[in-house]
UniProtKB/TrEMBL annotation:
<protein>
    <submittedName>
        <fullName>Redox-sensitive transcriptional activator SoxR</fullName>
    </submittedName>
</protein>
<dbReference type="Pfam" id="PF09278">
    <property type="entry name" value="MerR-DNA-bind"/>
</dbReference>
<keyword id="KW-0479">Metal-binding</keyword>
<keyword id="KW-0238">DNA-binding</keyword>
<keyword id="KW-0001">2Fe-2S</keyword>
<feature type="domain" description="HTH merR-type">
    <location>
        <begin position="17"/>
        <end position="85"/>
    </location>
</feature>
<dbReference type="InterPro" id="IPR000551">
    <property type="entry name" value="MerR-type_HTH_dom"/>
</dbReference>
<dbReference type="InterPro" id="IPR010211">
    <property type="entry name" value="Redox-sen_tscrpt-act_SoxR"/>
</dbReference>
<dbReference type="InterPro" id="IPR009061">
    <property type="entry name" value="DNA-bd_dom_put_sf"/>
</dbReference>
<keyword id="KW-0805">Transcription regulation</keyword>
<keyword id="KW-0408">Iron</keyword>
<dbReference type="Pfam" id="PF00376">
    <property type="entry name" value="MerR"/>
</dbReference>
<keyword id="KW-0804">Transcription</keyword>
<dbReference type="InterPro" id="IPR047057">
    <property type="entry name" value="MerR_fam"/>
</dbReference>
<keyword id="KW-0411">Iron-sulfur</keyword>
<dbReference type="InterPro" id="IPR015358">
    <property type="entry name" value="Tscrpt_reg_MerR_DNA-bd"/>
</dbReference>
């Protein structure tokens, strides 16, 4: 018997359902990663008569979307939420992808702004080490204690 991961690639083009090994081979993910995705509701499979997982071919596009979103730094829970919001749990279409990626790009831009500001604040702390509540912008971000009024707060 030929292992799933060693299936002839030309045969995969014809099949409407794929084993977990075939999905792993085509997507470049480990079988364990696919099982993890499934446990988190990101992908779904059905069981065949032999109780083996079978995935629709569309899972390959779904996995590609998940991988790209992860590279953008989108948390898995947010990816799962976005995919579950699609009608009937469909695999993202081109239009779906445009909408999702635009939203995730906005999130990425916001993270970049936050990290850039943090890096700029860190410049003043390099070589200092005081971690003072009065003067250190990292220790007392945006001077939160000053908004609680004068006097000790600890
Ligand atoms: S460590 Fe001294 S200003 Fe931040």
């Amino acid at each position: 018997m030929v292992a799933d991961a060693q299936a002839d690639p030309s045969e995969l083009c014809e099949k409407s359902e794929l084993s977990v090994g075939e999905v792993a081979s085509r997507s470049g993910l480990a079988v364990s990663a696919l099982h993890f995705y499934e446990s988190r509701g990101l992908i779904a499979s059905a069981r065949n008569a032999g109780n083996q997982r079978r995935y629709p071919r569309s899972v390959l596009r779904r996995v590609a979307v998940i991988k790209v979103a992860q590279r953008m730094g989108v948390p898995l829970a947010a990816i799962a939420e976005a995919l579950q919001a699609l009608p009937a749990g469909r695999t993202p279409t081109v239009t779906d992808w445009r909408r999702l990626s635009a939203r995730w790009r906005d999130d990425l831009d916001e993270r970049i702004r936050t990290l850039t500001a943090l890096r700029d604040q860190l410049d003043g702390c390099i070589g200092c080490g005081c971690l003072s509540l009065k003067v250190c912008p990292l220790r007392n971000a945006q001077d939160a204690l000053a908004q609680e009024g004068p006097g000790p707060h600890f």
